Recover the amino acids of this structure.
């Protein structure tokens, strides 16, 4: 069941794990590091302030859509969230500002994506977790192809994922998107990339050159600095991994106890 604290800044948890943090007075304030990294991708997707057409698979409390509305006024944003109870709670207690350009759909992310128009969005953000795991239907190469179909030429895909050593899941996701997109990057804290702990990683994919240098500067300046891997370093990390089809796809691994819990 979702829980929130009842101040102007809201922390929403699901089964004890942090799900969303929203500051109603400062939508540009992003508490969670992985959300900041997704926001960095949005920041680098176009010239500052330029509106974008955005598709968010997974809505939570609309933290990232609110950020995009504040930093890129005039953007058109579609949000797909499966949890109807969560959608209703956010609409009642944390409604988006009038004119924010955010439309929320209560639907299954993969099914909605399959019906979305081709070449209709500039950025597709995937942050979908069933409990603490990415559902299997969003971990296949067929899903990656659907994401590519919906993106416009030059568009960016960014997904919040979670894994730990030996990174079987994360390497398979890179193989999936590498089979579909020409360019890949991965954003994560050094301790995660070195296999020292389980944690979040943001996968970025595009059919154009990814602005790695700009992303790296932003990620390095965060309180918990992250690295951006691409090119040969990422190819070494992925080497030997094969794309996974719908029939073989599995959910992301179960996090170790306490990995994402809050006190």
């Amino acid at each position: 069941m979702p829980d929130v604290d009842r101040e102007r800044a809201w922390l929403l948890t699901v089964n004890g794990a942090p799900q969303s943090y929203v500051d109603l007075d400062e939508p540009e304030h992003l508490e969670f590091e992985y959300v900041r990294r997704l926001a960095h991708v949005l920041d680098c997707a176009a010239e500052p302030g330029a509106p974008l057409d955005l598709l968010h698979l997974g809505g939570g409390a609309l933290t990232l859509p609110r950020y995009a509305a504040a930093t890129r006024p005039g953007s058109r944003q579609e949000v797909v969230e499966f949890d109807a109870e969560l959608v209703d709670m956010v609409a009642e207690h944390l409604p988006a500002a009038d004119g924010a350009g955010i439309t929320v759909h209560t639907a299954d992310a993969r099914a909605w994506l399959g019906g979305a128009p081709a070449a209709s969005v500039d950025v597709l953000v995937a942050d979908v977790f069933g409990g603490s795991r990415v559902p299997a239907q969003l971990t296949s190469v067929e899903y990656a192809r659907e994401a590519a179909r919906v993106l416009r030429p030059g568009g960016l895909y960014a997904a919040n994922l979670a894994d730990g050593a030996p990174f079987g899941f994360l390497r398979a996701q890179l193989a999936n998107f590498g089979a579909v997109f020409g360019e890949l990057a991965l954003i994560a804290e050094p301790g995660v990339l070195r296999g020292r702990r389980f944690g979040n990683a943001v996968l970025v994919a595009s059919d154009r050159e990814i602005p790695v240098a700009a992303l790296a500067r932003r990620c390095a300046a965060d309180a918990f600095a992250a690295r951006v891997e691409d090119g040969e370093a990422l190819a070494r990390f992925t080497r030997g991994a094969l794309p996974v089809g719908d029939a073989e796809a599995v959910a992301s691994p179960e996090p170790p106890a306490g990995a994402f819990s809050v006190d």
Q: What stands out?
A: The longest helix spans residues 33-43.
